[in-house]
């Protein structure tokens, strides 16, 4: 299913296999998505940590691309992804 977070999935999937981590600011992610993140992404780290089932499309976008969240700083507005 094509959705709001598919551009992020594609971005991560298209990174070189040699790249094991990537840190993205929330604004960078919004640029990739060409869309705003929900306010909950800026306010609560639980938005980033949802399970991969159900309606949590944001998490599936990076897990589908074989990445996981390694570090996160909601206050500084960045997330570090690592290959799963």
How would you characterize this protein structure?
The chain is of the alpha+beta class. It has one domain. The protein is 35% helix and 21% strand. Strands 1-3-2 form a 3-stranded antiparallel beta sheet. Helix 1 packs parallel to helix 4. The longest helix has 8 residues. The protein is globular and about 30 Å long. It starts with 5 loop residues before the first helix and ends with a strand. The model has no long low-confidence stretch (mean pLDDT 89).
Which characteristics define this entry?
single chain; alpha+beta
Q: What is the element layout, followed by pairings?
A:
Blueprint: H1 6-13, E1 21-25, H2 26-33, H3 39-43, H4 57-64, E2 67-73, E3 78-83
Antiparallel strand pairs: 1-3, 2-3
Helix pairs in contact: 1-4
Compact overview of the structure:
By secondary structure, the chain is an alpha+beta fold. It has helices at residues 6-13, 26-33, 39-43, 57-64; strands at 21-25, 67-73, 78-83.
